[in-house]
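re: ur question from yesterday

yeah so i grabbed the chain u mentioned. its 176 aa long if i counted rite. heres the sequnce exactly as i have it in my notes:
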Amino acid sequence: MTRLTVEELNRADEAEFVDALGGVYEESPWVAERSWPERPFSSVSDLQRAMEETVRNASRERQLELLRAHPDLGERTEMTEESREEQASAGLDSLDPDQYEAFQRLNETYRERFGFPFIMAVRDESVDAIEDAMTERVEHSEPEEFRTALEEVHEIAALRLEELLEPREHERGSGP
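ran it thru and got these structure tokens back, copy pasting raw so excuse formatting
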């Protein structure tokens, strides 16, 4: 896959920009749409901050829609390619029957308590670490978990941007 540069995104019209970045936030192209006017971006980090700010400035209802756009972890249903790859990297696509049942129970308990799915940046996490996090976070207060879920959404978006975009030389950690 050819990675885009920030410069290319800065030159993109709104449709091209949204087409390129609409999947960074799960099933929520509105984040890219509302971030487009903030161009030009000086770096991938600058773009990431703008997208995060777009979400922070959205209404609580819009933020809740964003959270609800995420699939349940370990679920064997239709999901975006990005989510499928992220869950596969954590082994969630190959749960044994007992693990699958445990995840289903945890997902259901969590969703009933908070009204949105459990969200975690699972890339390269272990199944056990994810299950432990689910068990711990279901005990959070609603405001605490809403904040935590949004933080995880931003982490997922940052990882997706990292895959999509070519960093500038100074962002790679190389010399001037």
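noticed a couple things. Residues 4-171 form a domain with the UraD-like fold (CATH 1.10.3330.10). also The mean pLDDT is 92.
anyway ttyl
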